[in-house]
Amino acid sequence: MTDPLEKARQIADDVLFPAALAVDATGVIPSGHLDLLAEAGFYGMAAEEVAPAGQAAAARVVETLAGGCLATTFVWMQHHGAVRAVAGSGRPDLIEEWLDPLCRGERRSGVALGALRPGPPSVRATRVGGGYRLDGASPWVTGWGMIDVLHTAARDESDTAIWALVDAVPGPTLGVRPLELVAANASATVEVTFDGHHVPAERVTATLPYAEWGARDAAGLRMNGSFALGVAERAIRLLDPGPYALTAELDACRAALDAATPESLPVARAAASELAMRAATTLTVAAGARSVLRDHHAQRLVREATFLLVFGSRPPIKSALLKLVSHQRATPA
């Protein structure tokens, strides 16, 4: 990719956005959307050699694509955790078998993070001959039916996080329950249940003491803010003329996210989510009664902004967002 951002803009404006209402209405992402992202090289974006410009440049790509179609971008985005894990595994066998196919989008991945939430793990890993046995359930698994493998987290008896590549194929030991989302429902988000599911040792990408997971998680939450910026930017572009104040806020939110430390990131993430909702509701008011019709982008963007108020959240982000919203609420006369 010689100019990833320009390519992302072309795909978002020429392909994703024109189809976004149909994707929202039917609950189905055309396979050509994801194939196009693979052909453009975007499935390998997380690999260092593909995205040498770093996180800020990758974040702009995510933002741009999300402004085209949030559901498509949401499914594609889940893939990158597996790319990073395989590339950083230090295991030549795993890298040789998986890295190139993942980067080319020939193998596509989702992610199952449920076991990493605070409290008792929702998915347990028990060491058995030749690998691990998985038991439990992981909610919010995205892209079912569009992915080949699931980068799955579990925790063992010593509270070590075990990451492994699990084939995304239902069977006697792996069950799936579809979830209905208020927005981006075409992402095919499900709950995955493991019942004595065997994972070979050669599929394990990493192990990490769970006590160390919080710091790593906090450092990686910036990219989720790009979803909100993408929705905000699309709403602002649909306003005619676009209000300068909202455009300036969008630039400021992006700069704050790019510069954020793990300590300042919750406030920056909250500001991005709040801006997405405010931009979408501004578009709704400006468009008038027609904005509540299902064939108008305003209602879709409001629902997507609602979804992004809670997606990828953590307690500090929720706290910052509640504080921000309560401070901006009008005081009765």
Structure description:
- The protein has 333 residues and is of the alpha+beta class.
- It folds into 3 domains: 4-77, Acyl-CoA dehydrogenase/oxidase, N-terminal domain (Butyryl-Coa Dehydrogenase, subunit A, domain 1); 109-210, Butyryl-CoA Dehydrogenase, subunit A, domain 2 (Beta Barrel), CATH 2.40.110.10; 220-328, Butyryl-CoA Dehydrogenase, subunit A, domain 3, CATH 1.20.140.
- Helices cover 48% and strands 17% of the residues.
- It has 12 helices and 8 strands.
- It has helices spanning 4-26, 31-39, 55-68, 70-77, 80-87, 92-104, 213-219, 225-238, 244-259, 265-287, 297-308, 315-328; strands at residues 109-112, 123-128, 131-141, 149-155, 160-167, 174-178, 190-200, 204-209.
- The strands form 2 sheets. It has a 4-stranded mixed sheet. A 4-stranded antiparallel sheet has the order 2-3-7-6, with no helix packed on it.
- α1 packs parallel to α3 (55-68), α9 (244-259) runs antiparallel to α10 and α10 packs antiparallel against α11 (297-308).
Report the span from N to C terminus.
Answer: 56 Å
Number of domains: 3
CATH topology of the largest domain: Butyryl-CoA Dehydrogenase, subunit A, domain 3
Summarize the helix and strand pattern as letters: HHHHHHEEEEEEEEHHHHHH
Summarize the structure in short.
With 333 residues, the protein is α+β, with helices and mostly antiparallel strands.
Strand and helix layout:
Blueprint: H1 4-26, H2 31-39, H3 55-68, H4 70-77, H5 80-87, H6 92-104, E1 109-112, E2 123-128, E3 131-141, E4 149-155, E5 160-167, E6 174-178, E7 190-200, E8 204-209, H7 213-219, H8 225-238, H9 244-259, H10 265-287, H11 297-308, H12 315-328
Helix pairs in contact: 1-3, 3-4, 3-8, 5-6, 8-9, 8-10, 8-11, 9-10, 10-11, 10-12
